[in-house]
Amino acid sequence: MRVRYCVQPWSVCTGTTIATAQGMFPLTQIAPAVGRLLIVDDDDSTTETFARILTLEGYEVRTAASAESGLREIESGSPDAIILDLRMPFINGLGLLYRLRAVEPHRRTPVVIVTGDQCLDDTVIDEVRGLGAEIRFNPLWLEDLVDVARSLIRASREQLHGA
Predict the structure, then answer these.
(1) Whole-number pLDDT of residue 67
(2) 93 vs 15: which has the higher pLDDT
(3) Order of strands, sheet of 12-14, starting from the edge strand that comes earlier in the sequence
(4) Could you give the CA distance from residue 117 to residue 133 in angstroms, rounded to a whole number?
(5) 32 CB neighbour count, 10 Å cutoff
(6) What is the pLDDT of residues 71-108, one digit of tens each?
(7) Which DSSP category does 29 fall into?
(8) Taking residues 113-118, what's their average pLDDT?
(9) Is the pLDDT of residue 5 over 90?
(10) Which residue of 30, 45, 93, 159 is 20 to 30 Å from 2, comparing CA positions?
């Protein structure tokens, strides 16, 4: 039986374990497709948890607490892929995605938008997909987060090598 662990803002990741409301669980290090990820989310605990988990998986992770700081990180660090929150103050995730797609070097950067909003309007979903991004809904399970990162890096490498 495979046990799945949910990555929630109330999860605390330390070293090689994750503490949740259900208890402490080990994080196994899986041989990753190493790459540079940017996580943009205004919820510090989500950002920290995602970053720690993906760092343990071997990714180079940078974080931003707003779309504005995310844009600065994109310009300074040129990530291979981005995990982006949809609902943020001032410039939301969709606004950041539009700005990202307007600049040539980042037009095809793989992006997954993560949201807890289970009732998104179809027009928003179509808009996100039309901009070349995927949508994933919270809660994200630990293995789902790692799978998202792997697929983003794989897509980035395929674009780079024209596969």
Answers:
(1) 96
(2) 93
(3) 12-14, 17-20, 23-26
(4) 16
(5) 15
(6) 999 999 889 999 999 999 999 999 999 999 998 888 99
(7) P
(8) 90
(9) no
(10) 45
* Number of domains forming the structure of the chain: 1
- CA-based nearest residue to 77, from 91, 59, 57, 63: 63
Residue 39 Rama label (left phi>0; alpha psi -120 to 50; beta)? beta
100 versus 26: which is more confidently predicted? 100
Answer whether residue 80 is part of any domain.
yes
| Residue 65, domain member (yes or no) | yes
Position 1 in a domain: no
- How many whole angstroms separate alpha carbon 93 and alpha carbon 66? 9
What are the distances in angstroms from CA 155 to CA 49, 68, 102, 116, 120? 23, 25, 19, 24, 25
Within a domain: 58: yes
Neighbours of 73 (CB within 10 A): 18
What six digits make up the tokens of 39? 């996580």
Q: Is the pLDDT of residue 32 over 50?
A: no
CATH of the domain at 153: 3.40.50.2300
Mean pLDDT over 133-153 rounds to 94
Alpha carbon distance 107, 134 (integer Å): 14
Pairwise CA distance, residues 126 & 159, whole Å: 22
